[in-house]
Specification:
By secondary structure, the chain is α+β, with helices and mostly antiparallel strands. Helices cover 59% and strands 17% of the residues. It has three domains: 3-54 and 238-340, Four Helix Bundle (Hemerythrin (Met), subunit A) (Up-down Bundle), CATH 1.20.120; 59-234, PHY domain (Beta-Lactamase, 2-Layer Sandwich), CATH 3.30.450.270; 348-497, 2-Layer Sandwich (Heat Shock Protein 90), CATH 3.30.565. It has a six-stranded antiparallel β-sheet with strand order 3-2-1-6-5-4, with helices on both faces. α1 packs antiparallel against α2 and α8 (352-362) crosses α10. The longest helix is centred in the middle third of the chain and has 73 residues, at 219-291.
Length: 498
């Protein structure tokens, strides 16, 4: 064999070794990226679980505040007022029993004939129960704030319970006395805060009715209430957002597991390819060591024996596929971060088409199997003025509702109508449609057509509030048996800024 042939073979081996080195580095990078994304996914899942639990608790607290505050103004007399508040509080606390009454201040105990409410909102008279409660209260100092003590009396309950009690002075001669028996102590300070707010409102109503006048709140109290309402609204929006994520969690996990699955499979194939490449290199070196030289015929024979041309080509495809998988995971994780982010304070100019695309990405698993999605984008980006996370929440809610209205499949169409001052986003589905009665109530808080436990009844109400805060409108047009169209109108960024 000539020196030139030997040199050519050595060059090919060197080239192959460099390729192997690059493929090893690519594999290491892919494995490192996969590990990083896996940690991000785990952290996101943990954050999602924690946030979902917290949001469910916030939702219960806010619903309790809204329901109880509403019942106060509708109660015709003090007896009805205390009855309604006690029943709602029992439900909120999952209390075994509850009792509230206005009592003479010097006693700070219940009249033995005071009726008691159980967890089923059934009212009974139980003098033994009242005597046991009074015995516990007599041993405790009177308190304007909520206190929690253990009670263990077989006449009340066969197991140890937690008793929450509070005594709010109404005037010099009477107090508002409340006590609730629970199986376990509330695990949130916000629960006690909610109870304190309602207790103060009840006291205010009782004083107002006794004096026959409307009690004016001080400026400080009004500021506090305004702040509480603003905070409650923000919490409610975040609560509904996390509840939506909870419903989508299984689908999102599936979307993440798909690329993780084929990345893992690709890495296993890549590992096998590297073993073949290593065996090829060992065989080539052994041949050279024995024969001192190797010609093209022998070299190509080894290449064919170890299927090196296919392995090199397939390795390139594997690395490209893994990079695409990692990019898909990053896209999902970044979408979740944007959607679940809380605390946006500033409006900014945003491309509405990208917002809608990001929302579709979050709900992708809900719609991709049974639904045909047509997203008709304009040739040029349309910029509106708003908050990214809030607007994404609106469209996620609408897309999920559309998919749920078509359990057996159908079409979702998104298109844009550009005006001189605003942009309309039309989201249409071919679902079952809605009656005029449902359409009239659709944006009311806590209104839902879904079965118990499958909907909060807050999604579209919050969406309406978000669009309203963006100086826009949201309307619905629906025909039973034909489908539904949501029409969202938002001002253009140039008009707002100009």
């Amino acid at each position: 064999m000539s020196d030139s042939t030997s040199s050519n073979v050595n060059d090919k081996i060197a080239l192959l070794e460099r390729r192997i080195s690059r493929e090893k580095k690519s594999r290491q990078m892919a494995e490192q990226l996969l590990a990083e994304k896996s940690r991000e996914i785990y952290a996101s899942n943990q954050m999602l679980k924690d946030a979902l639990l917290e949001s469910e608790q916030k939702r219960d607290e806010l619903q309790f505040l809204l329901s109880t505050s509403g019942s106060l103004s509708l109660s015709g007399n003090n007896e009805n007022l205390l009855t309604n508040v006690t029943e709602l509080t029992c439900t909120f606390l999952h209390a075994v029993w509850g009792i509230s009454a206005v009592q003479i201040k010097r006693n700070s105990t219940f009249d033995i004939y005071t009726p008691i409410c159980d967890r089923n909102k059934q009212w009974t008279n139980n003098t033994v129960f009242i005597q046991q409660i009074n015995a516990q209260l007599a041993r405790q100092p009177a308190s304007k704030e909520w206190n929690i003590i253990d009670v263990n009396h077989s006449a009340i309950y066969p197991h140890t319970l937690k008793m929450m009690y509070c005594s709010k002075p109404i005037d010099e001669g009477s107090v508002l006395l409340s006590a609730f028996l629970l199986k376990q102590e509330p695990n949130s300070s916000e629960t006690l805060d909610a109870l304190t707010i309602i207790q103060r409102q009840v006291r205010t109503f009782l004083i107002a009715r006794k004096n026959g006048t409307v009690i004016s709140e001080t400026k400080d109290n009004l500021n506090i209430i305004t702040q509480q309402l603003s905070s409650a609204k923000s919490q409610l929006m975040q609560s509904e957002k996390m509840a939506s994520l909870g419903q989508l969690a299984a689908g999102i996990a599936h979307e993440i597991n798909n690329p993780v699955g084929y990345i893992r499979s690709n890495l296993e194939v890549l590992s096998s390819h590297i073993q073949y490449i290593s065996a090829f290199m060992a065989a080539t070196k052994a041949f050279i060591a024995e024969q001192k030289l190797i010609n093209d015929e022998h070299y190509m024979g080894l290449v064919k024996e170890y299927d090196m041309e296919y392995i090199i080509e397939d390795t390139d495809d594997i690395v490209t596929s893994n990079i695409e998988g990692v990019d898909r995971i990053s896209e999902i994780v970044n979408g979740l971060k944007t959607f679940s982010h809380q605390g946006e304070t500033d409006f900014s100019a945003l491309p509405i088409g990208q917002i809608v695309s990001a929302a579709l990405n979050v709900v992708k698993n809900e719609v991709k199997y049974k639904h045909d999605v047509q997203h008709i984008l304009n040739e040029q980006d349309i910029y509106i003025f708003g908050k990214l996370g809030q607007l994404q929440q609106v469209f996620v809610n609408i897309f999920v509702n559309a998919a749920q209205a078509m359990p057996d499949g159908g079409s979702i169409k998104i298109e844009y109508v550009l005006g001189s001052k605003s942009c309309q986003i039309l989201v249409s589905d071919t679902g079952s449609g809605m009656s005029s009665t449902t359409q009239n109530q659709l944006f009311d808080p806590f209104y839902t057509t879904k079965p118990v436990g499958e909907g909060t009844g807050l999604g579209l109400s919050i969406s309406y509030s978000i669009i309203e805060s963006h100086k826009g409108t949201i309307e619905v047009e629906s025909t039973e048996g034909v489908g539904t169209t949501f029409i969202i109108t938002l001002p253009l960024a140039s008009k707002v800024l100009g």
